[in-house]
Amino acid sequence: xxxxxxxxxxxxxxxxxxDIHAQxxxxxxxxxxxxxxxxxKKYDEKLASLEKQLDVNNxxxxxxxxxxxxxxxx
Length: 74
Description:
The model has no long low-confidence stretch (mean pLDDT 87). The chain is mostly helical. The relative contact order is 0.18. It contains two helices and no strands.
């Protein structure tokens, strides 16, 4: 894979990360003033899922950055 492909992957991953942040903000806004424990639990689970996705994507970003660096070092 050449550096351009890694850059395209990095751009795509950053878009995914932005989307996850936007979803997290939306969930937070939906929870404002909510006090039903069932609904709170559901959204807590959704936030945990988004956090896990974010962690995975951040690791992928670091891996892509390393691969880009390696391409330029060769």
